[in-house]
Write a structure and sequence with these properties.
Helix content: 25-40%
Largest sheet: 7 strands, mixed
Strand order of the largest sheet: 4-3-2-5-10-7-11
Radius of gyration: 23 Å
Distance between the termini: 60 Å
Number of helices: 14
Structural class: alpha+beta
Shape: globular
CATH class of the largest domain: Alpha Beta
């Protein structure tokens, strides 16, 4: 077996051994249940069922005027029209009026001419029936054709909830962030293990866009300019997804997502042939990046007289994020944690960019079956999915590690605010010996919470505890509530839910 395919084979084999299921939800039936659940409880305790507490939710979001909307959603259609209609319906949610200006449907199927009446949401819809199948290059053509500064990109067999789109927009407002990529755990692992560094000039990784990505329109424009400068072939341009993150030459910001597949039809990448095609284009992207940067005075290619510098490719060194992030379901918030998701820091140094797939193989070999199971089946996203039956679990904890809940643009006017956890007995002990603080904007910096956390049983079977810390400090000027561990802990622990509430 060739090395480029070995990583994928290892993951598939271990997945079968552990009976791992990557799909967070079933294709449609479970999503409908999730969509119909309008809110999550403020408490899972039987004696708090009728209390005055309210949970942080979409109701606490500052409503933006539709004139402020600055995102174009780009969806490609091929053979899953029913999925595209479902996605358009979700994107048409009034909640998104303040951020989503346009839904751009690029129909890549020349045999089927679509109409706006088929798709719905005509007041936001922009439809293009392509005369040929432009494949994935169409994403970036559509984004460049948009009139908004940001583009949201997703495949037609995947679903991203409106609140997560809102969270993406809140985060990408920060100047330090370029693009953000949502990834299910298996793809997050692949992206993490494919990071490479070479001669301080190359520092990049590979990430798919189709699970949901927020990018800047200017990035898409520069990317297309770069692809033309590099004289890529038509086939390479069609596979633009395989080139976008690598040629950016940064360690992308990836979030664990909630993994809601829609299914339907055959995926584009099928079997060994599909994997080999993807690998071939990933390696080609790596070659192109090396051809641009690996010389004494980059860029290493000749530029037209009217172009002063190479577009899109970042030359400034970057470092991988030291934290993991996951957006919440049911509220506009973001879990961020410094807890290590892997037992060892993945190796990144390579002799050539073509080693990008080989480094995956070497890194996967350092992860045992138990750690892989925790990574894939108990990711951070399971602590903020509204489901008490799933949990974020780790095999240990270290003093100084933290978990933050960023409430971003939410503006609850509570007189008393609580950070709450639904946990097992090991995590209970960890929380009772932790410190808490509010993280502030500007001059506020941070405010330590002096009150101690408390834990109660749920009053029903299961053995889980509901722990919380309370503060009367106003949330005005603060953006996150954080727990920091004050001691090491050995042994498996799980946080089944983490949320904010108040009264």
């Amino acid at each position: 077996m060739s090395t480029p395919n070995l990583f994928f084979a290892v993951v598939v084999a271990l997945s079968a051994l552990l009976s791992i299921k990557y799909c967070r939800f079933g294709p449609k039936d479970t999503f409908l249940k999730l969509q119909q659940q309008s809110h999550f409880p403020a408490s899972f305790r039987a004696d708090e069922a009728e209390s005055s507490l309210e949970r942080l939710s979409l109701q606490h979001l500052t409503k933006l005027n539709a004139t402020a909307a600055d995102i174009t959603a780009v969806i490609l259609n091929w053979t899953r029209l029913s999925n595209v209609v479902r996605i358009v319906s979700l994107l048409c949610d009034p909640m998104l009026d303040g951020i989503l200006a346009t839904i751009f449907i690029w129909n890549n199927n020349p045999a089927t001419v679509l109409t706006q009446e088929q798709l719905g949401c005509q007041h936001k819809l922009r439809l293009f029936n392509s005369p040929t199948n432009a494949y994935f290059g169409a994403r970036f053509e559509a984004c460049v054709a948009a009139s908004t500064p940001f583009c949201f990109i997703q495949d037609d067999d995947y679903l991203v909830l409106p609140e997560i789109l809102y969270t993406l927009r809140s985060r990408i407002s920060e100047l330090s962030v370029s693009g953000i990529f949502l990834q299910p755990p298996n793809e997050m692992l692949s992206s993490t293990l494919s990071r490479i560094t070479l001669n301080s000039k190359i520092h990049t990784s590979f990430s798919w866009l189709g699970y949901g990505s927020m990018i800047r329109r200017s990035e898409a424009k520069d990317f297309l300019s770069l692809m033309r400068l590099l004289n890529v072939t038509d086939d390479e341009f069609k596979m633009a997804d395989n080139y976008f993150s690598i040629l950016r030459n940064v360690f992308t910001e990836n979030w664990f997502d909630q993994n809601i597949p829609l299914g339907g039809g055959l995926p584009f990448t099928v079997g060994q042939e599909g994997l080999e095609r993807n690998n071939r284009h990933i390696l080609r992207a790596a070659d192109l990046l090396e051809s641009v940067l690996l010389c004494e005075h980059p860029p290493c290619i000749s530029l037209p007289a009217q172009i002063q510098d190479i577009p899109y490719v970042q030359s400034r060194p970057t470092s991988p994020s030291s934290s993991s992030m996951a957006p919440c379901v049911g509220a506009v918030c973001l879990l961020e944690t410094s807890i290590s998701m892997l037992p060892n820091e993945p190796k990144t140094e390579v002799q050539s960019t073509r080693n990008i797939l080989e480094i995956q193989e070497k890194n996967i070999q350092s992860i045992n079956g138990k750690e892989l199971d925790l990574y894939l089946n108990h990711p951070p996203s399971y602590a903020v999915d509204g489901n008490p039956e799933t949990g974020f679990c780790r095999g240990s904890a270290k003093k100084g590690e933290y978990i933050s809940l960023d409430f971003l643009d939410a503006t609850p006017k509570w007189k008393q605010t609580e950070l709450v956890f639904l946990v097992d007995v090991v995590a209970e002990a960890l929380i009772l010996n932790s410190s808490f603080r509010l993280l502030g904007k500007g001059d506020l910096k941070q405010q330590r919470i002096d009150t101690r956390s408390v834990c109660h049983g749920l009053g029903r079977e299961g053995g889980l505890k509901e722990c919380y810390v309370s503060t009367s400090i106003s949330l005005a000027g603060y953006y996150a509530f954080q727990i920091q561990f004050e001691e090491d802990a050995a042994g498996l622990w799980c946080i089944y839910e983490m949320w904010m509430r108040g009264r």
